[in-house]
């Protein structure tokens, strides 16, 4: 069935619908990854967004049981140049079309994704509607321009109640703002005793769990839409070692007095070079964010910039000058993408161990 993608600037892309045939609206973004569409589909950070994949052929290796980053995808819609009808891979259990139908997610193929990406890069992220060809363009545009983006994405994707992922190592409280399962897998692989808690858990509730360390996960939307998390971070800072990823990085910056701004079109892909200012080394990273820490606001806080993006110079990492706390804007767990930055999990746990040893030495003294 032919469908149309109508952008808020009036541009219309026509193509063939696949997956669900429901009509949806959302923010159009693009991801430059060549592979990893299953992880992208199931990344909760895409809540409320229509994702365009710049690689021309999507779905050729199907969908399998092992590569999900959440149980229920929060993505709004999928835009591709070509969707493979007959995947070929020994792990494949269903086609992309079958999976999108099962989860009620609409898709459109046959779109000139290169042109769409150039429009987004020129004008910035745009709202759009994916609908049937029968819909009147002007009526759709009127509704689209009157619609405000949701501000409760984190609430939508965060766990509703705490749950454990037991281990016999360090106890880590993982605050779920829209957590990718890859983060939990990395902690489980290191035998951590993980307790996952909702986004609105208070500092007192977290500290009552006697954590050795606290992780702030990735998540969707504007960090300023989660003020309770900013207050929570202020309450735990300096009491327990802290490590933040993506949205967690932005929330940490706000809690420490820096500011965040919306980017023109964000960073979404698996090949973003990031430089560690402490070592001079460059890592290729997986990224998915539409907001960034404003560099000029870091001065005057107790934060220092540790990493920058080589493509545009934006802030990619922070550390606290007085407390055991650091964050990165990119995804060290990858999924999908290169695992150059995976050692950050070990760095965090080394910090946790050092603080524990210091506390014991202090107590004995």
UniProtKB/TrEMBL annotation:
CDD domains: GATase1_CPSase (cd01744)
PANTHER family: CARBAMOYL-PHOSPHATE SYNTHASE SMALL CHAIN (PTHR43418:SF7), MULTIFUNCTIONAL TRYPTOPHAN BIOSYNTHESIS PROTEIN-RELATED (PTHR43418)
Active-site positions on this chain: 246, 331, 333
Gene3D superfamilies per the UniProt record, alphabetical: 3.40.50.880, Carbamoyl-phosphate synthase small subunit, N-terminal domain
EC numbers on record: 6.3.5.5
Record SUPFAM superfamilies: Carbamoyl phosphate synthetase, small subunit N-terminal domain (SSF52021), Class I glutamine amidotransferase-like (SSF52317)
Binding sites annotated in the UniProt record for L-glutamine: 45, 219, 221, 247, 250, 288, 290-291
High-level lineage: Bacteria, Bacillati, Bacillota, Bacilli, Bacillales
Gene name of this polypeptide: carA
Residue ranges of the TM segments: none
Single GO MF annotation: carbamoyl-phosphate synthase (glutamine-hydrolyzing) activity
Protein name from the UniProt record: Carbamoyl phosphate synthase small chain
Record Pfam families: CPSase_sm_chain, GATase
Alphabetical keyword list: Amino-acid biosynthesis, Arginine biosynthesis, ATP-binding, Glutamine amidotransferase, Ligase, Nucleotide-binding, Pyrimidine biosynthesis
GO BP, one annotated term: L-arginine biosynthetic process
InterPro entries per the UniProt record, alphabetical: Anth_synth/Amidotransfase, CarbamoylP_synth_ssu, CarbamoylP_synth_ssu_N, CarbP_synth_ssu_N_sf, Class_I_gatase-like, CPSase_GATase1, GATASE
Signal sequence, start to end: none
Similarity section: Belongs to the CarA family.
Subunit organization: Composed of two chains; the small (or glutamine) chain promotes the hydrolysis of glutamine to ammonia, which is used by the large (or ammonia) chain to synthesize carbamoyl phosphate. Tetramer of heterodimers (alpha,beta)4.
Residue ranges constituting the Carbamoyl-phosphate synthase small subunit N-terminal domain according to the UniProt record: 1-131
UniProt function note: Small subunit of the glutamine-dependent carbamoyl phosphate synthetase (CPSase). CPSase catalyzes the formation of carbamoyl phosphate from the ammonia moiety of glutamine, carbonate, and phosphate donated by ATP, constituting the first step of 2 biosynthetic pathways, one leading to arginine and/or urea and the other to pyrimidine nucleotides. The small subunit (glutamine amidotransferase) binds and cleaves glutamine to supply the large subunit with the substrate ammonia.
Reactions performed catalytically: L-glutamine + H2O = L-glutamate + NH4(+); hydrogencarbonate + L-glutamine + 2 ATP + H2O = carbamoyl phosphate + L-glutamate + 2 ADP + phosphate + 2 H(+)
Region CPSase, residue ranges: 1-170
Annotated pathway: Amino-acid biosynthesis; L-arginine biosynthesis; carbamoyl phosphate from bicarbonate: step 1/1; Pyrimidine metabolism; UMP biosynthesis via de novo pathway; (S)-dihydroorotate from bicarbonate: step 1/3
């Amino acid at each position: 069935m032919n469908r149309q993608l109508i952008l808020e600037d009036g541009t219309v892309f026509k193509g063939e619908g696949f997956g669900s045939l429901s009509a949806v609206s959302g923010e159009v973004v693009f991801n430059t990854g060549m592979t990893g569409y299953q992880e992208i589909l199931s990344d909760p950070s895409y809540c409320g967004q229509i994702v365009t994949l710049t690689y021309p052929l999507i779905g050729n290796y199907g969908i399998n049981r092992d590569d999900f980053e959440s149980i229920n995808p929060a993505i709004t819609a999928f835009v591709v140049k070509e969707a493979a009808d007959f995947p070929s891979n020994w792990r494949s259990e269903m086609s992309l079309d079958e999976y999108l139908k099962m989860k009620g997610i609409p898709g459109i193929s046959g779109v000139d994704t290169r042109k769409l990406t150039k429009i987004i890069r020129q004008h910035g992220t745009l709202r759009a509607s994916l609908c049937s060809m029968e819909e009147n363009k002007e009526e759709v545009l009127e509704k689209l321009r009157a619609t405000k983006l949701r501000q409760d994405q984190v609430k939508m994707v965060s766990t509703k109640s705490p749950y454990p992922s037991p281990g016999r190592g360090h106890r880590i409280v993982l605050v779920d703002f829209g957590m990718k399962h890859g983060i939990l897998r990395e902690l489980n692989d290191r035998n951590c005793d993980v307790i996952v808690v909702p986004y609105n858990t208070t500092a007192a509730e977290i500290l009552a769990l006697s954590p050795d360390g606290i992780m702030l996960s990735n998540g969707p939307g504007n960090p300023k839409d989660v003020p309770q998390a900013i207050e929570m971070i202020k309450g735990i800072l300096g009491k327990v070692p802290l490590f933040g990823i993506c949205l967690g990085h932005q929330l940490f910056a706000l809690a420490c007095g820096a500011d965040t701004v919306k980017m023109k079109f964000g960073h979404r892909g698996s090949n973003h070079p990031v430089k560690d200012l402490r070592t001079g080394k460059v890592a290729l990273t997986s990224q998915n964010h539409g907001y960034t820490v404003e560099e000029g606001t870091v001065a005057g806080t107790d934060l220092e910039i540790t990493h920058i993006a080589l493509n545009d110079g934006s802030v990619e990492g922070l550390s606290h000058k007085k407390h055991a706390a650091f964050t990165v804007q990119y995804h060290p767990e990858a999924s999908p993408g290169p695992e150059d930055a995976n050692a950050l999990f070990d760095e965090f746990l080394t910090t946790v161990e050092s603080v524990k040893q210091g506390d014991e030495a202090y107590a004995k003294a």
